[in-house]
Automatic annotation (TrEMBL):
A Pfam match: Hus1
Name listed for the protein in its UniProt record: Checkpoint protein
Key words, A-Z: Nucleus
Compartment(s) where it occurs, according to its Swiss-Prot or TrEMBL record: Nucleus
GO terms classed as biological process: double-strand break repair via homologous recombination; meiotic DNA integrity checkpoint signaling; mitotic DNA replication checkpoint signaling; mitotic intra-S DNA damage checkpoint signaling; nucleotide-excision repair; telomere maintenance
Presence of the UniProt keyword Nucleus in the record: yes
Highest classification ranks of the organism: Eukaryota, Fungi, Dikarya, Basidiomycota, Wallemiomycotina
Amino acid sequence: MVYVGQSGVDTALKSWLQVSVDTLFTAYRCESSNNNEVHIEVSMEQLYRAIKSAHETDDVLLRLMKKGAIPTLNLSISTLSHYNSRFTIEQDVPCRPQKQIYVDTFDQPAIPERNVTVQLPSIPKLKTVLEKLRILDNYVTIRANWEGKLEFSILNDQVGVRTTFEKLGVQSNEGARGTVVVDSRQLIKVFQVPELSNRAFIGICNNNCMAFYGFLESLSPSSEGKDDYLMFVIPSKAL
């Protein structure tokens, strides 16, 4: 299992990724004196730039190695040129090995008890709605209740817009409801993650935060039935 959390980042948006090894790799070998586990810290911005070089191929070798005295994640990317000849791109991302005692401090973002947890409607449809709301205002109000009703709305001096989804799957006590006001720019980032399946939920912690749980499409037959998921927590603006 691979876990990815944030460290040393001052941001209101908290995230956590849990994904099985079989989902990421077709072949995998990890050897260490720490129960064959390796923990590293890496800049996600640098890693993302390196991985972008591999967007047109699935032939990528990822190795943890040293370049001189610097620990490095090396990506060896085999791809085809415009003339149909194969060539290799090498990308090096500096990384920092971490001790187990440091890694043990990482866990999913802690949130209060959720008032309402609602299964989201079609992700592409919802993304379209949120993109339009983001243009109209920097903040969007989200309301959900125990009957499976989910509402996204904005209200300012120029415009008022409300989009409602009903009869959604829900987990809550009878009579429960919750409201949060979140940054629409942060919210749309959640739905720009590739490989999101339509199995996604949001939990409303009334006037505190919104937690998003998005399950990832399985990339490997051997990973079917495993819960590969991404979690985002966005704080609520004070009402």
